[in-house]
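Intended use. Records like the one below are meant for learning the mapping from a protein sequence to its folded structure. Do not use them to infer anything beyond what is encoded.
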Amino acid sequence: MRNIALLTSTILSLAASLPASSAEFTINTGGDNGAYHSQFCPALGKRLSEAGIKSACKPSDGTTENMQRTADGADQLGYGQLDVLALKAKEFGGASNFQRLRIDDVRECIFAVTKDKAISSYGEVAVRSDELRFVLPPERSGSAATFDYLKAIDPYGVGRAADVIHAANTDEAIKIALNSENSVALFVQFPDPDNPRFKLIREKGGHIIPVIDRTILSQRIDGLHVYFPQETQVENPGWISSGTKVVTACTPLVVFTGQSNAITDEARRHEHERMAKTVQGLRGDVLMPEEGIFATVLKRTRELTATGAEKFVAISEKAREKAAPLFEKAREAARKAVQGGHATDKQSHPAEPPTGPADLKESVR
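Structure written out for the chain above:
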């Protein structure tokens, strides 16, 4: 009994002496049934486990909540959209609070849908933005943050949108928009033709608007593109059809975490550094979903060449050119509003209305 007690005491002492870094890392994902949580996180967790690093996937409301959790605990990881990271970094202490571990070729795409046959390009959406109603998923969703980003970089186009509502979820947003006049639903997701949302759009008589515009495609973060023009499949091939494909802007999927130097526990900090290097050193293909239709769809999605994208950019620009007087009027109104707001402040110096987020270049590093 004495020997057993001594052995038990020794084991407990050894366990107590183990570094705190033996605890698992939390990987914040998205909805329980979403691709972040069910497809990508398990693949990452498997690779970390092979390196002797424990991890656990934790569902969330998406990129914004993942950034909040990482800001609260620098040792946490998160999946997110690059455009949302660019827009939201300031809200969580600045871009320097985050380190971007990976950006692979996997991208989420922006889908705008309407039943208005007269709207066929993003330029037309921009021109009519002050008379359209925009229906979005919940306010904390990545889709809502993407729309905020589009408004910020296009202040005289989509930035003029005044009638914006948030539905309970993406499916509800689509239903509301396609049951209404002068309405556009906008959401972000992986281009999966088996997702019932695309079937819902067809059943409701809606069509998908190419979200392609020079302003969108010109966005950069640290020299990296925020959006890429891609051809995505939204309907599977049938017996006599080749399936339906659409072209739209897609933003990269990012894996991020906090800065190791923000972690006070030395052992945990060293383990975090090891974890970060492990994630950065993984091959992109080993982090992809390994099997199933979703993995096949991702492989079918292709990036357009500059020539291919230019055709859609030209269509959008043509719509904007027709409305040039309208945009100039909007600029003048904004200019006067800025000047009027500072008229009583002798120390202020009115500036031109912004053309986009001033801090985009210093976003997520």
